[in-house]
């Protein structure tokens, strides 16, 4: 199944619109803080920078990650063989990360963190982005059709080596995210002794440290773990959707790792790594793993995939199609190809002249047939 031209154009336009919304919020925050450097450290979670800010930014590291996803998918929708899966992946990550904004932005505790007009604008943008995400999923799933011509390439799948690497890294990322969230649940239940509510971490609340557009930490962790797990299962089956879905997850993971490693470097955590407690050491190691795994996944999954095996009959469409080749059964001129087999109401034609290789090239020519009565 391939994506129709209209669906490709529609998906690309939707991605461009979503990218414009994300870029607009980043530009808005840049005008509120002292340049990109200060905004970057805010995204990284620098508490000291937060205390010196006069206005709290509305964005988080999610915005630049989604911006990169939308730009990449906008191009892939027009050119890639896996355009349908790319649109669905972009729509899925949009819905997953924007859904909590419906109840967080309009909550009473958010009133003390942002002005009413800013909250209203943010809520409208969240509705638009959720509608855009759903539209991407519908376009990717409903805009497909069978390939009829030989020049229409079907969706490619990852090679065996890339699929194995994707299964390993994506599966590990999913497990690591789940493990850290389980540790966070332990902290809330044991060490914090009810002073902090884990529900605030999972769904957003008064005790959560999040910006206007930022999804709750627990929600984002579980959502990204689910995306990685689905992509890992797809890699195990060498499914075509595993490439774009894995790349979308890799972009988010990579940026998350980059800002964390930058923060640890700024505060010279590596100089005193041996003196740090175990949880901090594991956190640093996890951030490095995010950077390495995200980069490797983008490089591996971004390579051209392999055409799916279709057997001797080719890709279907008109008889055997081009899968049988020029000199094999099912090619041009052989039964099941474009040759004089019955069908479509056309009378039998003379066989093509031999050529292009041994055995007649286009396939073994059938015996000449006499014209039908009255021809």
Name the descriptors:
single chain; 375 residues; mainly alpha; 12 helices; 2 strands; globular; disordered C terminus
Q: Quick recap of the structure?
A:
The chain has helices at residues 5-32, 35-44, 47-52, 62-79, 83-98, 101-104, 116-142, 160-191, 198-203, 217-236, 242-266, 278-301; strands spanning 2-3, 144-145. With 375 residues, it is mainly alpha-helical.
Description:
- The protein is mostly helical.
- It has one domain.
- It has helices spanning 5-32, 35-44, 47-52, 62-79, 83-98, 101-104, 116-142, 160-191, 198-203, 217-236, 242-266, 278-301; strands at 2-3, 144-145.
- The radius of gyration is 27 Å and the shape is globular.
- Mean pLDDT is 83; it is low at 312-375.
Count of individual beta strands:
2
The value of Rg in angstroms is 27 Å
The number of helical elements comes to: 12
| Oligomeric nature of the chains | single chain
How would the blueprint of this fold be written?
Elements: E1 2-3, H1 5-32, H2 35-44, H3 47-52, H4 62-79, H5 83-98, H6 101-104, H7 116-142, E2 144-145, H8 160-191, H9 198-203, H10 217-236, H11 242-266, H12 278-301
